[in-house]
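Q: How would the structure tokens look for this protein?
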Amino acid sequence: MDKEEIYKLLLDVGAIVRNSHIVYTSGRHGSDYVNKDAIYLHPSIASKLATEMAKRHVGMGIEVVCGPERGGIILSQWVAYHLSKEEGREVLAVFAEKGNGGYVLKRGYSNFIRGKRVLLAEDILTTGKSIGMVVELIRGLGGDIVGIAAICNRGNVTQVDVGGVRIDPLIELSLPSWSAEECPLCKKGVPINEELGKGANFRRG
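A: Here is the predicted structure in token form.
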């Protein structure tokens, strides 16, 4: 699949929302949004995207795929599954959970990281903060990080933002945003979408 096909696929399932009024986690406002939850409503779509992510990393000797909770749990499973099929050998899947001010590996997963070639899997890259903490975690456990596979880089996240690790998103999007005070949608009286982003928590001063 090329970038246009992936974009259309995400648009068709409602994972890319356009012409709305969104409050982002940062508090800034915008008209477009990437709704990763819409992807996981459709297992076949999640699988198809994971297939594309896996194909880009065949032949790299990846032994473990790790994703941050929550979406990364599902995604790491699918990517590892398709990598296993492509490679003709088992690739393990683990997930990192929030804890201790960052991310941790529980359930004995840390025993499968040291000395292993690890691919990190993330759905949406916004600031790179979460996956950056997973990078620190895996390195601290002695894992060799091969790269970061992502569905979408929507925040112009670079290698510098994630500890120098190579990033390979299926698509990249640039979503314009404004402060609440400068938001043209607010000035036009366009209602805030309270179902997506942080709109439900937004209170006009």
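The mean pLDDT is 94.

Residues 3-201 form a domain with the Rossmann fold fold (CATH 3.40.50.2020).

Upvote if useful.
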